[in-house]
Here is the input.
Amino acid sequence: KQEVTQIPAALSVPEGENLVLNCSFTDSAIYNLQWFRQDPGKGLTSLLLIQSSQREQTSGRLNASLDKSSGRSTLYIAASQPGDSATYLCAVIINQAGTALIFGKGTTLSVSS
Amino acid sequence: DGGITQSPKYLFRKEGQNVTLSCEQNLNHDAMYWYRQDPGQGLRLIYYSQIVNDFQKGDIAEGYSVSREKKESFPLTVTSAQKNPTAFYLCASSDGGLQPPNSPLHFGNGTRLTVT
Here is the structure.
């Protein structure tokens, strides 16, 4: 059974730091992996979608990498800002129709000014 | 602006009552989903629908029901049979439909249901 783990569960950093959030999954047979951001009491906002054939995706200060063989993905945030404070979730998509997403429990990031 | 609208934002009900959560999207997406989020747990899939008039059970469908009569609407009913209904409910949609999932999942802002 596919399991997705995100470590650490919480992270506090000062403004300006570069940081890495980790996501690991137990079964490498995935179709895509998606990173989301969730603000308190809100829904999820899609940040990056990496297809299984890709190694990384970039959007602004965010860069996500995927290593299927080792069951790992990382989300790199450059020059962190207080506005980056949120919970970051990763999800692996395990079927072709895209209806089966397995979510991690998230990493809650706090960036202090 | 295109997006997903969930209403209401907060909902309070007495135990034993059925309640329906609304989800509307104007993204012209084929696929729609309902997730439940509990503190300290990942999102869990309740139901999903790939096309109009068709839907499938997710991992935790017991005590819930859905309908998909229109492409843009996917309401979720929490019935009295759901033993622990208090949670944050999230609706999502994607352009995937029956095709490979190369498009990201889009979420609404959620409905927080409290049952006492």
Remarks:
- Chain A touches chain B at residues 4, 31-32, 34, 36, 41-46, 49, 51, 89, 91, 93, 96-106 (CB under 8 Å).
